[in-house]
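Now for our specimen.

. . .
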Amino acid sequence: MRAVGQDSFGGPEVLKVVEVERPEPGPAEVLVRVRAAGVNPTDVWHRASGGLAGGDAPVRLGWDVSGVVEAVGPGVTTLDPGDEVFGLPRHPLPAGTYAEYVTSPARHLVRKPAEISHEEAAALPLAALTAWQALVDTADVRPGRRVLIHAAAGGVGHLAVQIAKARGAYVVGTARSAKHDFVRGLGADEVIDYTQVDFAAATGDIDVVIDAIGGEYGPRSLRTLRAGGIVVSLASPAEAYLAAEARTLGLRAAFMIVEADQAGMREIASLAATGRLRPRIEAALPLELVAKAHELAESGRTTGKIVLTVG
């Protein structure tokens, strides 16, 4: 089968399509014929340095997947050959979804709603699960909560806006002015141009901050919170000083890594099926243009998600 490989860490140019052995599903696993695979910032990080996996190249990139079950391994009772599925196999362990076929634990996948395409489905798992686990599992967003979402037009951000609104929250997003109409169209109640004003001075009484940027954004975000509020960092661990400062103010700061999560994926599938969650796809490129997809991902100018199409 065709798959994306690399012989060394480096820029997008190290990525190439190679021929490798097709995998076979093990116990409690399924083999998926990949129709589309999402491209995420963590893919760029792993390509460049090995990321969480560490060790030596080659690294098999990709976690987001949407496709069709080709075969099932021993013990699988929830899926059958021919089922259309999507999900986040094995994360944060390597999955290798930039390929024509991939194996996955059966319970890391859910059935794809008929209302969305494979490209749309592949854009959802990692980013939408990140948003869901940050907003719901970590921060317990409920109706009436005030939520500040940084990079609200980005891959995680534009899905987090929609999920927060589906949970009944009041949503404030940060984005460049050119993207304000897009973010408002997602349901945001307010949008702040972070290049023109200090977001910490422009909003307040926030219950939950979702920070996909890191660095100084964590300490500055504390200034927007009301008592009991939380900053959920998706970009870097909440340093000890930030957590300590938060505690002295009656606040919290937490660092979160997304996990494979069938229950969360079912919630995401339900939101997508009813039209309450739709990914914006900036570009859908064939597997052979994987280097171009990574160049776009690194440009910092994309809105929403980038997807690779397979087959």
Summary: The CA atoms of residues 28 and 130 lie 25 Å apart. The two ends are 11 Å apart (CA to CA). The mean pLDDT is 94.
